[in-house]
Amino acid sequence: MLEMLNERPVDLVELSGGSYEAPARQGDTRDGRTLAREAYFLEFARDMVTCARMPLMVTGGISRREVAQRVIADGVAMVGMA
């Protein structure tokens, strides 16, 4: 899918998911990997950054500056925090 977006005039792709009612918001996840880190979609973003021609933004589970800096250091252009 990302390869198709590479051919379009896309300014940014944000990686996020779920909602306020999603189990991940309450600390209950479908797999244990998201509990081990704060940036829920960082692992996915690392894979996407290698083929994306547009900047990527990661949102989800990032609430500390140190985590945001780690996300940026891994090649993601922007971090969403709330």
Description:
By secondary structure, the protein is an alpha/beta fold. The protein has one domain (2-80). Helix content is 27%, strand content 12%. It has three helices and three strands. It has a three-stranded parallel β-sheet, with helices on one face. Helix 2 links the parallel strand 1 and strand 2 (56-59). It is elongated and about 35 Å long. The N and C termini lie far apart (27 Å).
Q: Spell the H/E element sequence.
A: HEHEHE
Q: What is the overall shape?
A: elongated
Instruction: Please provide the count of β strands.
Output: 3
| Low-pLDDT regions | none
Write down the domain tally.
1
Count of DSSP-assigned helices: 3
Biggest sheet details: 3 strands, parallel
Based on CA atoms alone, the radius of gyration comes out at 13 Å
Strand content: 5-15%
- Straight-line distance between termini: 27 Å
Secondary structure category? alpha/beta
Strand order in the sheet with the most strands: 1-2-3
The averaged pLDDT comes out at 81
* Helix percent band: 25-40%
Strands, helices and their partners?
Elements: H1 2-6, E1 13-15, H2 42-49, E2 56-59, H3 65-73, E3 78-80
Parallel strand pairs: 1-2, 2-3
